[in-house]
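// run 5 | inverse folding | seed 20
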C-alpha cells in the first residue's frame, strides 16, 4: 500500500528514513530488500548474486514482461535469449533502420494533423512508435489495427503497478497481443502467413553485508535519475554505477539493450516536434510522481498544427 500511496517516492523515502542502509519491505506481496549506491549497483548486477527466476512479482510478469520473458531467465537460457535481442538492437545500421521506420510513420501521421481540431501528443506518439516498430520488425500490421495495437501496448505499461480496472486492462491487452503474435508465428513457420524476409517471426531463438531473503526481490536504486546532481547539470557522473536509468552493468548482463534505440528515436523525434507550428491550449500538464508510470495528466494536447516538411 505505501507504494501505491507514494509512487516513485516510496523507496527513496524509505532509504532516507533508514539513513541509507539496506531496507527490507514487501513489494507486490513479495519480500524485498532495497539497496542504493555504487557498491550496491555493482553487487546487484553481478550475475553471481541474484537469481531472476521467480524474482519478478506475478502482477509484473503477467502484464509488463510476459511469462517466460528474458527478465525471468538465468544462466545459459538467459544468455541465449539476450543474445537474440542484442543481435537486432546492436550496431548503428540496425538503430538507423529502426529510426527511419519510426520517423516515416511519424511523418505520415503528421500530414493529417492540420485537418484535426486537437491532437493528444502522447497517443499520437504511441501510434507512430507502434506502426514504425512493426514495420522495422517485419511484422504485419494493418493501418486499421495500429490504434488498437498502440492502446494495448500502452495499457501493458500503464497497468503493471496498479490494482483494479487498469491492471486488468493490462492483462487483457497482453493476452490479445500474445495471441495475435503467436498466430502470426505459427502461420509464418507453416508458410500460411505473410512475413517479411528477415522478420523475427521466421525463426526461433532461445548487497554487500546484507543477506537477501530467500526467493525475495532485490531493488537496486541509486535514487531517481532526474534528481541526480550531475544529471541536473547536464553531465554524467564519473562512476557509471551512480546513474543507471537503463540498468547497470554491461549490455550483456542486465543493462537494457534498447538504450541506443531509445536515444536514437528521441534525437530524431524531438527535432521533428520542434519544427511543427502549433498552439498549446489550457490543460493540466502536471506529472504526478505518485503515478507509476508517470505521464502528463492531459497527454499534452496541441491544436492549430501547421505541418512543416521534414528535412
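// decoded
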Amino acid at each position: 500500500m505505501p507504494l501505491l500511496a507514494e509512487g516513485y517516492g516510496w523507496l527513496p523515502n524509505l532509504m532516507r528514513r533508514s539513513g541509507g542502509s539496506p531496507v527490507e519491505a514487501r513489494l507486490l506481496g513479495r519480500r524485498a530488500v532495497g539497496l542504493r549506491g555504487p557498491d550496491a549497483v555493482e553487487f546487484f548486477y553481478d550475475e553471481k548474486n541474484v537469481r531472476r527466476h521467480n524474482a519478478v512479482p506475478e502482477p509484473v510478469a503477467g502484464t509488463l514482461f510476459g511469462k517466460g520473458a528474458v527478465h525471468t531467465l538465468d544462466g545459459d537460457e538467459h544468455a541465449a535469449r539476450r543474445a537474440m535481442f542484442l543481435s537486432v538492437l546492436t550496431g548503428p545500421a540496425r538503430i538507423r533502420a529502426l529510426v527511419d521506420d519510426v520517423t516515416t510513420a511519424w511523418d505520415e501521421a503528421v500530414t493529417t494533423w492540420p485537418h484535426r481540431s486537437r491532437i493528444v501528443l502522447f497517443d499520437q506518439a504511441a501510434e507512430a512508435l507502434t506502426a514504425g516498430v512493426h514495420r522495422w520488425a517485419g511484422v504485419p500490421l494493418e493501418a486499421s489495427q495500429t490504434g488498437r495495437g498502440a492502446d494495448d501496448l500502452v495499457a501493458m505499461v500503464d497497468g503493471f503497478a496498479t490494482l483494479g480496472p487498469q491492471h486488468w486492462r493490462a492483462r487483457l491487452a497482453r493476452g490479445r497481443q500474445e495471441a495475435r503474435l503467436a498466430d502470426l508465428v505459427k502461420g509464418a513457420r507453416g508458410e500460411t502467413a505473410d512475413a517479411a524476409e528477415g522478420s523475427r517471426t521466421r525463426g526461433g531463438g532461445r548487497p554487500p553485508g546484507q543477506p537477501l531473503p530467500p526467493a525475495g526481490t532485490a531493488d537496486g536504486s541509486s535514487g531517481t535519475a532526474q534528481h541526480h546532481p550531475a544529471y541536473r547539470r547536464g553531465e554524467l557522473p564519473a562512476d557509471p554505477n551512480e546513474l543507471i536509468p537503463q540498468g547497470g552493468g554491461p549490455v550483456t548482463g542486465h543493462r537494457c539493450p534498447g538504450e541506443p534505440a531509445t536515444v536514437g528515436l528521441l534525437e530524431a523525434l524531438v527535432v521533428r516536434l520542434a519544427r511543427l507550428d502549433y498552439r498549446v491550449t489550457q490543460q493540466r500538464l502536471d506529472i504526478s510522481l505518485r503515478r507509476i508510470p508517470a505521464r502528463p495528466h492531459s497527454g499534452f494536447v496541441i491544436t492549430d498544427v501547421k505541418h512543416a516538411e521534414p528535412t
